[in-house]
Fold this sequence. Notes:
By secondary structure, the chain is an alpha/beta fold. It contains 20 helices and twelve strands. The strands form three sheets. The chain has a six-stranded mixed β-sheet, with helices on both faces. A four-stranded antiparallel β-sheet has the order 2-1-4-5, with helices on one face. The protein has a two-stranded antiparallel sheet with strand order 7-8. Helix 16 (515-529) links the parallel strand 9 (503-507) and strand 10 (533-537). It is elongated and about 120 Å long. It binds adenosine-5'-triphosphate and magnesium ion.
Amino acid sequence: xxxxxxxxxxxxxxxxxxxxxxxxxxxxxxxxxxxxxxxxxxxxxxxxxxxxxxxxxxxxxxxxxxxxxxxxxxxxxxxxxxxxxxxxxxxxxxxxxxxxxxxxxxxxxxxxxxxxxxxxxxxxxxxxxxxxxxxxxxxxxxxxxxxxxxxxxxxxxxxxxxxxxxxxxxxxxxxxxxxxxxxxxxxxxxxxxxxxxxxxxxxxxxxxxxxxxxxxxxxxxxxxxxxxxxxxxxxxxxxxxxxxxxxxxxxxxxxxxxxxxxxxxxxxxxxxxxxxxxxxxxxxxxxxxxxxxxxxxxxxxxxxxxxxxxxxxxxxxxxxxxxxxxxxxxxxxxxxxxxxxxxxxxxxxxxxxxxxxxxxxxxxxxxxxxxxxxxxxxxxxxxxxxxxxxxxxxxxxxxxxxxxxxxxxxxxxxxxxxxxxxxxxxxxxxxxxxxxxxxxxxxxxxxxxxxxxxxxxxxxxxxxxxxxxxxxxxxxxxxxxxxxxxxxxxxxxxxxxxxxxxxxxxxxxxxxxxxxxxxxxxxxxxxxxxxxxxxxxxxxxxxxxxxxxxxxxxxxxxxxxxxxxxxxxxxxxxxxxxxxxxxxxxxx
Length: 588
Ligand code: ATP
Ligand code: MG
């Protein structure tokens, strides 16, 4: 479900909910900020009053003591005003950062919980722009903005009330012009929000594009696609250019209008108060008072127009954040059932699945494994082997049919249980910018070093780990950090091993490994599979030789299924043919 821009009620519900959720716990800071603001406004309004008294005292030749007293009061107010302003900045900034950190954490949690389909549809760069860029835009909104716009409204009303006090005509005339100004500025704001949203979207896309290309630098250079990339960059930049220019123009229009109205207000104020002075209705001090109030009026008017700009930006970001929050995971929430202990059985019954419903990858697929059985899953590239692994690990739900693990429908098992008891080693192993230890435990502090060392020794990785500078503390990085594909895969084995799952799905990388690493992997695999049910998606004959059962996937169905030895003995079987011609040649 996405927020419809025209569904204002729903959107404003979202806004208030967000304000309540993030500003609520900060009520102390909000209150303090409001108090500082009101005090600051009071002082601002007092200054012209003192100046009027000063001018009137000077022109009526009052005693020098009275005049210098006014000077001291003026100075005191000016100093207090500045102190309050400093306090305001401090409180506002703390408020903004505290709320925004909270929001960012919530967004990240939300994104990490979304189904993989969501992540495939978006580049990481786009998400970064959302989780960081949009959120940072809101910092201003949460801190100064929400309180300031209220403050400016109070200031505006205060000034108008004081002007009424001087003369009703002047008060009424300036109020009328101000009212028109506020209405026009708000209209301009409404025109600005969609432009700003478009500009932010364009820049998020640019971000995503850059991120994707930079990650793929090696491939791009190798395939000579640099020129093409630059051309695409130019296209995206052009889009950002247009969107930003238009958005900036609409925003600037609000600034221009504010200035125009200000000039008008000044002229009206001077003309009317000059006339009143000429008729001896008010003193020269009061003429000055009216003039300085019209000038102070410039502050809320001009600030409000700038804040309206900020508001436009914040609303655009908020809209997109609400949209992200309202994206529900396509996975059903999952149940609470737990799997039985030990190796787990697996049953796929009439499973149909496609990444989009009109392009099925699996059609009514059936498969069943006893606890502890090792299945070798073969099939051409693109036949859906990885897809089966993703379904069993419940990254996606099947469109039709049922998947049972340990006799329990996956949809009824708790997500935590699935992550704990089903271990999966994927074709692409992602390493984090972190130590070997953290890469193995995936930042789980409960796993002790002894456990890690035992697993590494078990897998024959301990000597390798010791050879790294710093051993377990050696730092790895996402680009492989000097690890070969084989070593990365061994690390992934160790990851799964540490969690002691009852079902292991191994999606073997199709890259060829050097004989030494290959031997190491073979050894590690032997250890990994003891006492576990396993689905081994194999690209190498040696790996398949380990399986008791073989399944060959073709056209979204299992085309051949049986005990490996039986199939190998039957010369007419596909498996026997694969073995004759060599698995690699046929499958890879
Ligand atoms: P390989 O041996 O190359 O690893 P595979 O048997 O694992 O191949 P899958 O990755 O399961 O094949 O892909 C099966 C089909 O689904 C392919 O046609 C592929 O293009 C498509 N596919 C895979 N992942 C996605 C995805 N995230 N979104 C859309 N389509 C996908
Ligand atoms: Mg695959």
